[in-house]
Amino acid sequence: MAALRLVGIAGSFNRPSKTCALVEEVADRAAHRYGFDRRVYDLHDVGPSLGSALSRRELDDQAKGVIDAIVGADALVVGSPTYKGSYPGLFKHLIDLIEPGELRAKPIIITATGGGDRHALVVEHQLRPLFGFFMSHTLPTAVYGSDRDFADYKVASKPLSTRIDEVVGELAAFFPGDVIVAAAE
Fold first, then answer.
1. Mean pLDDT over residues 36-43, rounded?
2. Would you say 22 and 113 are in contact if contact means Cβ atoms under 8 Å apart?
3. Number of domain units in the chain
4. Closest C-alpha to 179, from 39, 72, 34
5. For the chain: N or C, fewer Cβ within 10 A?
6. How far apart are CA 171 and CA 90, in angstroms?
7. Domain NADPH-dependent FMN reductase-like spans what residues (predicted)?
8. Distance (Å, whole) CA 69 – CA 64
9. Is 0.90 topped by the overall pTM?
10. Do residues 75 and 44 lie in contact, with contact meaning Cβ atoms separated by under 8 Å?
11. What pLDDT is attached to residue 1?
């Protein structure tokens, strides 16, 4: 039996990135708890063809591979840095190249990062409606981390860590038989 696949996508070009660190942390905890094969990408991994492609056909193989991984995943962790109250345009462009039916009923953990609390509602006002359009199952708990929640590009605050554990636990509604590692501990 093939392992379930979890894909994380961080809508950031920066390396290192708090957004990617958050997506990695969520993906690692979910993989540990449910036994997912996990892969995390950022916009660097998508590559330069994204910015000039008007359709998926115009993407290079590297970018097509990332989109194929996203649509082929059993679950997603999506993270976005917050710029002026929303997600970056190139991140949105990547999502725009996915057909709505390709994410239908897929469980998605939505995450975001920003400099401070002013941006915290990006998960509810931007990301949740975006994936609602795709008729995806965004999990009830959304995860937002501000600068104070990280140290050296690692999750460092107890409240953020607790929220990550909460949302990872919510995946059990979709993968109840796959809670193998946590049950054995």
1. 97
2. yes
3. 1
4. 34
5. N
6. 28
7. 5-145
8. 9
9. yes
10. no
11. 59
